[in-house]
């Protein structure tokens, strides 16, 4: 039976954090940026549809941001528990 190497586990968790943390930050910035879809020249139903789409996109980006942040937080907790 092989033993668990805590150093290797922490290194693997740190690699995952290093890959995911920038994704979480990018999503955070994307949710706070103004939508490029809502140009002043849009009128009528197109403007309404673009607004709904931008709202839905922002909501989904927030959900993705929350999930990425939560995963980074859990990975950090796991890394501390192992070390």
Give keywords.
rod-shaped, mainly alpha, single chain, 80% helix, 83 residues
Describe this structure in words.
- It is a single chain.
- The protein is mostly helical and 83 residues long.
- The chain has one domain.
- It contains 2 helices and no strands.
- It has helices at residues 6-32, 44-82.
- α1 (6-32) runs antiparallel to α2.
- It is rod-shaped and about 70 Å long.
- The two termini are 21 Å apart.
- The model has no long low-confidence stretch (mean pLDDT 89).
Order of helices and strands: HH
Characterize the overall form.
rod-shaped
Largest sheet: none
Instruction: Compute the separation of the termini in Å.
Output: 21 Å
> Level of helix content?
over 70%
Point out poorly predicted stretches.
none
The multimeric state of the shown protein is single chain
Strand runs, count? 0
Query: Percent of residues in beta strands?
Result: under 5%
Tally of alpha and pi helices: 2
Number of domains: 1
- SS class: mainly alpha
Whole-number mean pLDDT: 89
Radius of gyration: 20 Å
Please sum up the structure shown.
The chain has 83 residues and is an all-alpha fold.
Topology:
Blueprint: H1 6-32, H2 44-82
Helix pairs in contact: 1-2
């Amino acid at each position: 039976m092989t033993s668990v190497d805590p150093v290797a586990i922490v290194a693997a968790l740190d690699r995952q954090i290093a890959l995911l943390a920038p994704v979480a930050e990018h999503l955070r910035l994307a949710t706070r940026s103004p939508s490029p879809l809502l140009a002043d020249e849009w009128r009528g139903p197109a403007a309404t549809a673009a607004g709904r789409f931008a709202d839905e996109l922002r909501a989904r980006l927030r959900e993705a941001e929350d999930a990425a942040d939560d995963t980074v937080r859990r990975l950090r907790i796991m890394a501390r528990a192992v070390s």
